[in-house]
Amino acid sequence: MKDPNYPLIFFVESNSVYSKLVLNHLHSHKFQNVECFSTGEDCLKNIRRKPDIIVLDYLLSGINGLETMLAAKKKYPETDFIFLSAQDSIEIAIRCMRYGAFDYLLKDQHSLTRLTDKINKALNHRSLINSNKRFKRGIILFSLALALIILVFAILAIIYPTTFKII
């Protein structure tokens, strides 16, 4: 994640009117770094920009949302995916989640509010994961430093046995 204050969000939706509606909603909720794409292929052409979150429809012209997610995950597995789709199929939702989607939302009158909630949850989740990684690295470095100090004292005790008396 580049800047937690300005996460890069890709939104992939073939309906341009709905795309503008979502873009305006996200901007009004302080998500200013949002890029819209009308196809999965267009999204994948720009994947090198390493978006933090990709919100996508399941049904897209060309490759579908799941295929887009799988192709993007191969290059950048740390990207989170949220599906926002009119496909009211539990099988599709389960398949998307099984392959790594953060969540699957149905388009309805409450979907934009739920979308901003899910984006915030995904960003918080990513922040916790990164914090956990930093903590683990700190523990490992501390353990290595402590082991090195003990090793130095052990070597000094062997070289200078009269100075470092072991009781």
Please describe the topology of this protein.
Layout: E1 9-12, H1 16-28, E2 34-37, H2 40-45, E3 53-56, H3 65-75, E4 80-85, H4 90-98, E5 103-106, H5 111-159
Parallel strand pairs: 1-2, 1-3, 3-4, 4-5
Average the pLDDT over all residues and give the rounded result.
92
Major sheet attributes: 5 strands, parallel
CATH homologous superfamily heading: Response regulator
Structure class: alpha/beta
**Alpha carbon gyration radius:** 24 Å
Strands in their spatial order, largest beta sheet: 2-1-3-4-5
Q: In DSSP terms, counting alpha (H) and pi (I) runs of 4 or more, how many helices?
A: 5
Q: Mind telling me the CATH class?
A: Alpha Beta
Instruction: Please report which band the strand proportion falls in: under 5%, 5-15%, 15-25%, 25-35%, 35-45% or over 45%.
Output: 5-15%
Q: Give the overall shape, derived from the CA principal axes.
A: elongated
Number of separate structural domains: 1
- As residue ranges, the low-confidence spans are none
Which range best describes the helical content: under 10%, 10-25%, 25-40%, 40-55%, 55-70% or over 70%?
Answer: 40-55%
Protein described:
The protein has 167 residues and is of the alpha/beta class. It has a single domain (9-129), classed as Rossmann fold (3-Layer(aba) Sandwich), CATH 3.40.50. It is built from 5 helices and 5 strands; from the N terminus they run E-H-E-H-E-H-E-H-E-H. It has a 5-stranded parallel beta sheet with strand order 2-1-3-4-5, sandwiched between helices. Helix 1 (16-28) links the parallel strand 1 (9-12) and strand 2. The longest helix has 49 residues, at 111-159. It starts with 8 loop residues before the first strand and ends in an 8-residue tail after the last helix. The relative contact order is 0.12.
